[in-house]
């Protein structure tokens, strides 16, 4: 549920959900809270905090002697290590993830491994193509739209045809209402030198997401971290939102979101 809330920009609700669950979940399922904590930290650009949460979960799993959920932790830690330039650490995480995949026999663990493995530096083109093809085929075969979209977005930069995977991910994120991930995909599409489908719709979606983040109580600096924008860019977008929505304060934006007027 925390992942769903974060995907839609509801960071405060996700925080409250995790706080409520703290201490109520014990045993193997407890590591999934650390995974969610890491995702929340990563959403705000706090990669150090994400890494700490993931390592905490892995240590707890080791002490408890259980494997359940550690595939998610190892995979997420590999992604964080890649984001922070720790390639050797990422490889070590993937070695552990392979062991978990063999123990559990689950295709979810294999998919998580493939998603991170595609991003490893120093691999030959044939290896990358093979990993990418398997990741995309496996994701599609599992028929889980959000999971498939995340996979496509993750591997698209390494593919021979990034736009096709970006556009498919963009459509799937739209179908499940993952507005924050859809925003990230728009950024990726633009950075790849391609046009985002439906400019008018994209602008409206950007404004709705911004309104949600404001209603969540985020400061301009926090919004900047979540969206990966500069402080000036956030300020400019807020100015346009105020003008388009006909409001004069953040309080009015909060009211509009709560009544549904700014999320239509």
What does the model show?
The protein is mainly alpha-helical and 264 residues long. It folds into 3 domains: 1-122, Alpha Horseshoe (Serine Threonine Protein Phosphatase 5, Tetratricopeptide repeat), CATH 1.25.40; 124-197; 200-264, Winged helix-like DNA-binding domain superfamily/Winged helix DNA-binding domain (Arc Repressor Mutant, subunit A, Orthogonal Bundle), CATH 1.10.10. The protein has 15 helices and no strands. The longest helix is centred in the first third of the chain and has 18 residues, at 47-64. It is globular, with a radius of gyration of 19 Å. The model has no long low-confidence stretch (mean pLDDT 92). It comes from Streptomyces varsoviensis. This is HTH luxR-type domain-containing protein. Residues 196-261 form the HTH luxR-type domain.
Keywords:
single chain; 264 residues; mainly alpha; Serine Threonine Protein Phosphatase 5, Tetratricopeptide repeat; Arc Repressor Mutant, subunit A; 3 domains; 15 helices; globular; Sig_transdc_resp-reg_C-effctor
